[in-house]
Design a protein that fits this description.
The complex is a heterodimer. By secondary structure, chain A is mainly alpha-helical. Chain A is 74% helix and 0% strand. Chain A is built from twelve helices and no strands. Chain A is flat, with a radius of gyration of 30 Å. The two termini of chain A are 28 Å apart. By secondary structure, chain B is an alpha/beta fold. Helices cover 41% and strands 22% of the residues of chain B. Chain B is built from eight helices and nine strands. A six-stranded mixed β-sheet of chain B has the order 5-6-7-3-8-9, sandwiched between helices. In chain B, strands 2-1-4 form a three-stranded antiparallel β-sheet, covered by helices on one side. The chains are: A mainly alpha, B alpha/beta. At the A-B interface, helix 2, helix 9 and helix 10 of A face helix 2, helix 4, helix 5 and helix 6 of B.
Chain lengths: 321, 241
């Protein structure tokens, strides 16, 4: 893209209007000079800029990104149906796609499908958002204050490795069969991973950015808000993604184990109900719903944000998604 | 004298001194090229002048409002457009919001990038990025401009053009410029004065004036380049084992 199209167009007029033949062009004595004046320089730079910049490519919808996953899904369902139709296993142990679809319809008609999805989604999102609010300041503090980081860093990393299901028994003893139990387990899953994401995001900031900030005269607060935070955003975002995954998994674990009391009916509860009734179609329905919610949140929430963020920074090239 | 360095020394930890007894003074509006081989502490010296590092001995005098700094790679913030990068420098300097935009556009025009203000750094070529970086350092509006091998990573054609560009802007804005380089031709091309820094420890060992005649007579410039190169090589040879 030429950045200065006008000088290019009018240059022959303004530059050499006086001389009718090219020989009159002034040649500088010193070889160390490569241009003859401001207009000439502007024109040269504009030419070089357009040579060195990529032509803007129009963004087009890449249908293979949509069609290939759909095709993969269809193939998987067909393979599933084929396996079931071979009749190796009893139908109530391995139901076919149509059986599960039928169960979906029944659950939908009962309203328990909607209830389960809504309850779990609500809890997952609320738990995740509260985790973000708690984890962000802690993460910034740990990233910026070295002694705190040294003291708590290993603990936070350790908590990330600890499966949050391990907190379920403790939570049940402390909070009983209430929503507090579910939320506690979600927090223990999500908060450490968001903190870790933010810390590694801050760690990956090129040190030069801070030097630039200092040279430009940023004070501590300006440095944190105008430079460190935006620079750490990609790492923070992947921390958030992981935090959501941990929230969702922890939530399911908690809902499967802690049933009854004032705990409402979520997808984990549905899964557990399927086990109690020994109804494989309910179990499969619940698993597929849990998976679908996870995929949808990733596709509809995180992927667009991440794509936009990375594209603005020119970091998207080479992505296979 | 906006910049005076007196017996300046710097060592990191217990290591050998990087800079030792550096003496120099730079006049208002002067363009000084600081030349040296790798590891001579040129960048360290520049960082000290910029206030990014502290000297371990000696004294220095720099303008009280600090210095503008241009890095080897453009060091633009990738989440901001070219114009926003310049505006950030103005903002951190305390320029009001309305004025920032006008000023940023003026500066973009000064470096011949009037049409590229809305592009992000990754959409610009290396030369364009360095021009945005130059505009940003001019946005700091400091009398002293420190440049740390700003054109080292560019191709020869772009570098030649940016030499012309920088000379033009220097003449237009009357800045005092300290330009660090390891390229003798570049030093002679740009500087009014070339200071040669020895390596390990860094110390100003010799200086040359580049006169107006050198600028118009390629032969004379070539001769001076030869003399400085010979001296630089002598300095490097000292470290042969």
């Amino acid at each position: 893209m030429p950045s200065n199209p006008t000088p290019l167009a009018e240059a022959p007029v303004s530059g050499e209007a006086a001389g009718p033949v090219p020989e009159t062009r002034k040649v500088h004595a010193a070889l160390t000079r490569s241009s003859t004046g401001n207009e000439d320089l502007r024109e040269l730079e504009s030419g070089l800029d357009s040579l060195q910049s990529d032509a803007a490519r129009a963004a087009r919808i890449d249908w293979s990104r949509i069609l290939l996953p759909v095709a993969a899904l269809v193939v998987l369902v067909l393979v599933w149906q084929f396996y079931v139709s071979l009749g190796f296993k009893r139908r109530d142990l391995v139901p076919g796609p149509m059986d599960v679809l039928g169960q979906f319809g029944t659950l939908w008609a009962e309203g328990s499908l909607q209830e389960a999805v809504w309850t779990s989604l609500q809890r997952g999102i609320a738990g995740f958002l509260i985790s973000v609010v708690i984890a962000t300041p802690i993460g910034l503090l740990l990233a910026q204050v070295a002694p705190l980081r040294r003291a708590f860093g290993p603990l936070i990393s350790g908590l990330q490795v600890l499966p949050s299901v391990a907190w379920v028994p403790a939570a049940i003893i402390w909070f009983g069969l209430t929503d507090a139990t579910v939320y506690f387990v979600v927090f223990m899953g999500a908060i450490p991973s968001i903190i870790n994401g933010l810390i590694s995001g801050v760690d990956q900031i090129p040190p030069q950015y801070r030097s630039v900030g200092t040279v430009l005269g940023a004070n501590r607060l300006q440095m944190a808000l105008q430079i460190v935070l935006p620079a750490a955003l990609p790492g923070y975002l992947s921390g958030l993604k992981q935090g959501w995954a941990f929230s969702w998994r922890s939530l399911m674990a908690a809902e499967i184990i802690a049933v009854g009391g004032t705990i409402g009916f979520g997808l984990g509860s549905m899964l557990n109900q399927g086990r109690d009734l020994a109804d494989m179609t309910i179990v499969m329905s619940a698993i597929l719903l849990i998976l679908a919610v996870g995929i949808l949140i990733e596709l509809l929430v995180f992927a667009p944000i991440e794509k936009r963020l990375l594209r603005r920074r020119g970091l998207l090239a080479g992505s296979t998604r | 004298m906006p910049v005076v360095l007196e017996n300046l020394g710097k060592r990191f930890g217990d290591g050998a001194p990087v800079l030792d007894d550096v003496n120099a003074s730079i006049a208002q509006g002067e363009f000084v090229a600081l030349l040296g081989a790798s590891g001579c502490g040129k960048s360290t010296l520049l960082n000290i002048m910029a206030g990014l590092e502290l000297p371990t001995s000696g004294a220095l005098e720099v303008p009280s409002d600090g210095a503008a700094f241009m890095f080897q790679d453009a060091a633009l913030f990738p989440w901001l457009t070219a114009r926003e990068n310049i505006e950030l420098a103005l903002k951190l300097r305390g320029v009001g919001k309305a004025e920032r935009r006008t000023k940023a556009n003026e500066l973009l025009d000064l470096v011949h990038l009037g049409g590229a203000g809305d592009k992000r750094p990754h959409e610009l070529s290396g030369g364009m990025r360095q021009r945005v970086s130059l505009a940003r350092s001019l946005a700091q509006d400091r009398q002293l401009l420190l440049m740390d091998e700003p054109f080292a990573a560019l191709d020869a054609i772009t570098r030649d053009l940016l030499h012309d560009e920088l000379e033009r802007i220097w003449k237009e804005t009357g800045r005092t410029i300290v330009f660090v380089t390891h390229n003798v031709r570049e030093a002679v091309r740009l500087g009014q004065r070339v200071l040669l820094l020895s390596s390990r420890p860094g110390r100003v060992v010799q200086e040359w004036n580049v006169t107006e005649e050198h600028r118009t007579d390629a032969g004379l410039a070539g001769q001076l380049t030869g003399v400085i190169t010979a001296r630089l090589r002598e300095e490097i040879r000292r470290h042969a084992k």
